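Hi R.,

Here's the chain you asked about this morning:
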Amino acid sequence: MIEPASFKAARPRWGSAGAKSDAADAFMLADYAHTDNHRLRRVEPVAQATRELATLVRARTALVQARTASSNQLWAILSEHWPGTAKVFHKLTSQVALACLADYPTPQSAALLGEGRMRQFCHRHSYRGGKSAAALVGRLRAAPAAANPIAPKVLEAIIRGSIAQINLLNTEITRQPEERP
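And the predicted structure, written out as tokens:
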């Protein structure tokens, strides 16, 4: 492997004209490799374990990016057609937020959601966000209503599809490190 800095330092041995061309560069590199071979570091192939780890990291990055894209799409739908739900839980991709959307996918389904039901929901899903059931319901109710909402069945279908996709990506992201070589 030829280090660019050492090759640049050796350039004056072929003249100081400063004009560059591909043919001249090829000649200089070949001559440098011939005369200074003892100074060059041999390039070794990357170890199999390193290549596998790099592939695994790229695959996990792709999954995280796909989850981010999916949660952004879900957030856009919610902010346009049911703004309150995006503000109830801190992270839209969390299990408790997805469970809440699964149980209450439309404003109509959450109409009867009160403090008692929210407390039961939080207990059932081991919510550890530090907010009381009253505060969570307050966040839901404080958000403005959608200006031009779509039909509840359409909204429910979109939300359920997004939930399924994000749950699948969450599962793959958490499962992948166990499969390391």
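Residues 115 and 137 are 6 Å apart (CA to CA).

Let me know if you need anything else.
M.
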